[in-house]
Structure formats: C-alpha cells, structure tokens
Amino acid sequence: MKPIVYHTDAITPESLVQAYQKLGCTPTGRVAVKISTGEPGPRGGNWLDPALIKDLVQLVDGTIVESNTAYDGKRLHTDDHRQVAVDHGYTEIADVDILDADGTMDLPTRPGGHLDRDIVGTHVDNYDFVIILSHFKGHIMGGFGGAVKNTSIGMASSDGKMNIHSAGAVTSVDAGWTSAEQDDFLESMAEAAQAVADHFDGRICYINVANKISVDCDCDGNAAPPSMADLGVFASLDPVAVDKAVTDKIWAAPDSAEVIERIESRHGLHTLEHAEKLGLGSQEYDLVTF
Q: What is the C-alpha to C-alpha distance for residues 253 and 273, in angstroms, rounded to an integer?
C-alpha cells in the first residue's frame, strides 16, 4: 500500500492538531517536537510561529528540541542558541532542549553509504517519540528543507552536521567547513535521516508546514522574502512521501518558478530518490485532503 499524506490548505493551530490526529499516533513517554528555532538576522522570521504550533506541542506535552549549528551565528553555541529560543518565543509555549548541549552519541547508519554513523546529541536518548515538525522552504545547499532535512541535518549535532555536509570525511566542527560533492551531500542527508528513523523504530511522525516559502532556509538570517503562496499543512508517517507531496504541489503552483529553480539547481529531489532507495520511504503516495 502507498503511504498516506494528509493535506489541508488551512494553516492554523487547529489544522496542525487535526493533521497530527489523522496519523493515529499514540505516543507514550517523553515526546520531542523537532523544529528549527531559526537564525536571527535582518531578514529572518520565516520560521514557525510559536502561536501556530503551541496547541500541538502542548497537546502531546512535548518538549521542543533543536541542535546546534555548524556555522558561525547565534545558534552555534548552546547558551546563545537557548537565548534565540527565548527571543523567538518558543520557551513561552514549552520547554526547549538543545540536544547536543551535553555532548554527542552515534547512531548506526545502514551499510554501503557515505556515512558510517550519524552523530546526534546525547539528549536524543531522553525521548520516546519524536514529531518532526518542519517549515518547508528552499535551501541554499540542499535545494529545499522539509521532513528529511529536519530529521537529518536538523537532528544532527554540530559535529554531525559537518559529518553530513562532508559525506563522512569530517566528523568535527572544529576541523573547519568541508563540503562534499553535491550528490554525496544529498545522499548523506538521506542516510542520516534513515539512522534517526531506525533509532525511533516507528515512534516518529512527520508534519510539513508549507507557508512563507522562501528560496532560503530558516538557517539564513538574511533570507529572501517568500516568493510563492502558502500550500498548507502536510502530515505522514513517511518522510519521503510528505516531502514529495509538497514538491508536487510546488511544481503545480503558478507562482513557484523561483522555488523550483532553487530546488532544481541544487539537484534537490535527488535526496528523495536516495532516501527511497535506502528504504526510508516512498515517492508514491495517496493524498488525502481534510
């Protein structure tokens, strides 16, 4: 059977809760809600509004989780990153946990890929279930950022981000920035997302919010303004399907030329191709509107 992707045009606190409930998840124990806190800057602000996600986070008694970045900015170091979470309003709706605040641990990757491990924060082990709650947008390196990116780069520690960007060549942010060949980087993202999915072993779900869609990521404090209309909320138990559903909507939209160019120029859809090859998910899906 094809995975189901639930979709609504409405982008409201109520629609987020409804999308999550459609998935039929019944988490027990501690629930992590993985978002991007967003890089502050003169043209930031496209990240998920705390008022939008509050009801969902509180419904599951969730802790908002994030990991430190691998580049200079306000989220490279834990104390600064925590202040960003305060400044952007996330601590007003829930506890916020920086996953690599106290060090890192390795998650096994599947054999045959670029990565021999995925490096995440030790706090990952504190959670029994994770909701990957992503703001879907473009990305200067990956072409786009959605569920797969938020599960891989997003969950990875600073060292883990360097591991992914370098396709396994560098495993410490202190070694300096190293970029792999583009397809190797994209494939490494898929491999890291697979490692996280394997770790949670069915105790994970994925929600994409496709609003304020810029060609640039929330990690860019000087991001371009949104360049196309909002597309709604998408939810699935399959990260590949939920990302593919959004990109299919982008390709069908009349005002999406800039975002399509960003994705195509970075070969971004290759991430989903490799993720499907790994068995992380399917690019074929059934879209169910509500």
A: 22
- In a 3-state reduction of DSSP, which class is residue 36? coil
201 by Cβ neighbours in 10 Å (0-12 / 13-18 / 19+) ranks as exposed
| Sequence-ordered list of residues with C-beta below 8 angstroms from that of 104, at least 6 positions apart, any chain | 119, 120, 121, 122, 157, 159, 160
CB-based contacts of 24: which residues, under 8 Å, 6+ apart? none
Domain CATH number, residue 283: 3.40.50.11440
Could you tell me which of 198, 183, 157, 154 has the C-alpha nearest to residue 271? 183
CA distances in angstroms from 68 to 8, 65, 171, listed in the order given: 32, 10, 15
Q: What pLDDT does 239 receive?
A: 99
The dihedral through the CA atoms of 188, 193, 195, 196 has a sign that is positive
Q: Which domain holds residue 68?
A: 4-289
pTM of the predicted protein model: 0.98
SS3 state at 72: coil
Split into its structural domains, the chain has a count of 1
d(CA 96, CA 86): 9
For the stretch 217-260, pLDDT in tens is 999 999 999 999 999 999 999 999 999 999 999 999 999 999 99
